[in-house]
Structure formats: structure tokens, C-alpha cells
Amino acid sequence: MSPEEFEGILASGESSCVEFKRCGGLPEDDVYETVCSFGNRYGGNIFLGVLNDGTVEGVNPKRVDEIQRNLVNRVCNPNQFDPSPMVETEVLTKDGLAVIRVWVPMSASVIRFKGVAYDRAFDVDRKVTGDYLLSQLYMRKQNYYYEQKVFPSLTLDDFRVDLIERCRRMAVARRPDHPWRDLTAEELLRSANLWGVDISDKTSGYRLASVLLLGKDSVIGSLCPAYRTDAIVRRIDLDRYDDRLLTKTNLVESYDLLTGFARRQLPDSFYLENDQSVSPRDIIVRELIANLLIHREYSSPMPGMLVIGNDGIRTENASRSFYEGRLDPDNFNPMSKNPIIAGFFTEIGLADELGSGMRNLYKYSRKYTGQEPEFSDGDVFRAFVPVEFTDGSATAPQEQPRPNIRNKHPEGMAVDDAIAWLLDANGTVTSKTVAELAHVTPRTANRHLVAMTSRGILVAVKKGRFIIYERSTD
Fold first, then answer.
1. What's the pTM value of the predicted model, to 2 decimals?
2. 405 in a domain, yes or no?
3. Is 35 within a domain?
4. 388-421 pLDDT, tens digit each
5. d(C-alpha 380, C-alpha 385), whole Å
6. Of 123, 199, 371, 426, whose Cβ has the fewest other Cβ atoms within 10 Å?
């Protein structure tokens, strides 16, 4: 490590991968707890002879070799560590004082120090206790994606056949000779790798990814009860929100609902690209929401978040990362968190190849506001794209004009999105108008309306023999 790098670390302070330790004699147990936590997380550097505030105190120069020898002996002692972590040491000097740098790489296995596993959270070493935290730690060390979890009891009845057909049409619209065109529903699910075998116990069945993409809402809620995506607008009422959309349905229709919600709240502008008019807003919304849904760690109870504020739009979702910190597009190596879900979104045209999302967000954010987006990864992935509202005030932007209900899309639209569309246009909806716009039965439309009423989003008003629905004012 160069003197300049060392100076920069001292100035930046402790973090998830940097720890300062005073070392008056031989290293104490707290040093080895940090060794354990670094090995279990992303790796990191421990600097012996540095106080918490970055002041260099140094170690005893006569004991430098003894300290390094003691450190190696303890990490190799099976009564102390299981398994033994890898460490390397380096002696640095500053102002004539000796500092020992201990580099700990990320381990391929879960490490325990004196029978206890430690993990790193910000600049703190914490004991890992409880089944959930331990399972998360082991999952991080394995080449395993939670989307691949197999549920042998699932059958085709647990899936939305109408949604499977919609996705088939979307894939064929992009590529007329798509292999899904002539497959049965069951064959399509297998072709999309949504059915598989758990190699640990040889059980076979539909994967969690299949339910998240195409499952009925009741099945999704049963297998993934914490799953939801919360979208809010917080521009006027900064304590609560101005508008809100909470989705718990499948990922395909969640994508429709979330993109429609975001587009209604954000100002639009167009510019010419290769003699064609392009909407940077629509591309930004598409990439942010696709990333929010595709690359989430679905074993985590943390909900996905989309927040539109006066400064811009930001998203947050649980992540399974091998890196923590700000992402730089110049040295960014994309890695799919859920390759099955990502592949399905690509087939139906809701996402492009891996890594294109960040490139598009940088490109079109500059076109949109002249500013660059920000990304950071860790246990939580965060994205932010600046937005300049044309009115310059903390009021919601004007919505874009809505098509007349008679000009329906030939494939219809998601039910909840149709409800929002009609409310924007007319102020009220009925099960019949929703059914016509979404191409579903009135019974299906009514089920969605009743559910939104029970959540306090809508209120039902009886008009003669009919019931109409309008937005709740609470």
C-alpha cells in the first residue's frame, strides 16, 4: 500500500472494510472478531496502531515481528478459528511510527471465531445469531439464488394461465419465430427454466421464480409473505406522502403498475435520437423499475421502495452483493442477482442484456436533466436519478393526457393499472368499465376493486342498483 493510499484511508475513517485498532501489546480478541467479520463479508483491512479517529499511535517497533507471528499463529489455530481465514500483513510507517496492515480477503466459507460467526455492518462487528441471519450468511457464501428454490407441491393450477398467454404474445411480438409460440403452458414454463431440480435433495418442481413471475396472488402471498413493492410520492407532504401505490402481485403486472405510476408523476420531455423522438423519462422509469424487480434478494423481508421527491426518483431493494459502496460505470462488472427472472424479462421485452440498465440510466439522465445518476450496492442496492420539475415548486407535476377508453390497447392492460387510468380520466370506476379496459371478466375486476377498498385506497358508493368506486380522501 502506497503512502498516499494510507493517507486517504486515514482521512476517510472506518467503514465496512476498514478498521482501526490500538495495539499496545499483542492483538486482543476484538482484532480477531474483525478478522472473522471481514472474512464473512467483503474482506477488508485492519490497521494495528491507529486510534478510532484515525490518529496514528503506532505499535511497539521492537514487537512488530512478534505481533505478526502471533496473529498468524492464532488464525491458524483450529481451537480459535473454524475454518482458518487467510490473512496477509504489511508494515507501514507514518511520521516514524510503525503500523501493521492486516489484509483479510473474503472467505468462501462461513468463518467462526471461538464458535461464534461475526458479520460486518457499517463499521461494527456483530455476532450472527438466529436462524434467519445465519441462513443469510450461508446463502451469501454459496452459489445459490433464492429464486431457484423448488416447491414440489406446486401445479399448473397455481399459475395465471391468462398471464402466461400474455407473456407468450409479448415474446412472439418481439420475435415471430420465438420457441414459446407453439408450446403448451407447461412446456413454456419448463423452457423458461421455471421448473427444475433441487440438486441438494433431488426434488423437482416449479421454482420460486415461476410464482413471482406468473403465480396467482394467493400463492405468491403464501410462499413469499413479505414480498411487496411500495411506491410513494413525497413532494408536498414530506412526513407521509402525496400519493402511494402498494403492489403485491406478480412481477409482470407489478412492472406495469409501477411504470404507470412513475410516469404519471414525472415530467416528460423528448429529444431526437437518430431522427426519432425519444422520451428519456420513459427509459429511466423502465430501467429503474426493471432493476428494482429483477435484481432484488427475495429471501429478505425488506420491501422494494420507489420514492419520488422534489430532487428526483430513488429506488431501494434488498441485495445479495459481493461489493459494498458506490458503483462507478467505468469499472462496473454487472452480475445478475436473479438470472432466471432476468432472462424471462428479457424474453418478453421488459429488460435488455445485463449491464445495459446502468449505461442507459447514465446516458438518458444526462439528456433528462444534465445530471448523472448515483448507484450504491451492499445489503441494500440504492439508485437515484435527479429530476427537475418544470414548475420549480413542491407540487406534483401535471399528468400526461390519457387516451380515451375506447382506444384500448389490443392486449388490454393490468387490472390495477386500468383502475388507476379510469380514476385519472373520470374520477370514478365500475367493475364493468374496468373489465372492458383490462379485458377481464367483471368478476375479476370486482375482486380487485374490493381488495383496494379493503386497503383504504378506494371507497365504494352505491348509486341506485350500481356500485361505483372513487379514491379515498383519507
1. 0.64
2. no
3. yes
4. 887 544 344 444 443 444 344 434 567 888 888 8
5. 17
6. 199
